[in-house]
Amino acid sequence: xxxxxxxxxxxxxxAATDVIVNAANPAMLGGGGVDGAIHRAAGPELLxxxxxxxxxxxxxxxxxxxxxxxxxxxxxxxxxxxxxxRYGIDPEPARLLDSAYRxxxxxxxxxxxxxxxxxxxxxxxxxxxxxxAAGIALAVCGEEQWAGIDIAFYLFSPDMVDTxxxxxxxxx
Length: 172
Fold this sequence. Notes:
Blueprint: E1 6-9, E2 19-23, H1 33-42, H2 44-51, E3 66-70, E4 78-82, H3 93-110, E5 115-118, H4 130-141, E6 150-155, H5 158-169
Parallel strand pairs: 1-6, 2-4, 2-5, 5-6
Antiparallel strand pairs: 3-4
């Protein structure tokens, strides 16, 4: 990998960064896990910003996509809501997970953001195998086209940090 990507054990809602990426669901109205934590920390403003995103049949962001909103009460300026696949349910999960990370980074670049904090998208209730998800995430984030963006993964558990560090040392 040509870029340095930070792996941090900690609370993504406290990240001092331009953008916090939320592992969102297609409705973008909050949920459990990191999604719920981000919404709680950002306050009701984030939910109001999400409600303003156009929706069709309850979908504000398709699987593999990302949308950007102001960050409410978070230290970050923006929240990028990236929707990863449900492993074993959604077809082509690797392609969709890759697309979620790419879509998030493209929005960060388009909004002139110099730093991004990612969670482990799809690794909670969406059931993505952690080793495979880490490899995909780090491969996308390590591409030269994102060279101007400081990228960090904020992971809650020591086991998840170990998984990401293993994938990083394997070049993934």
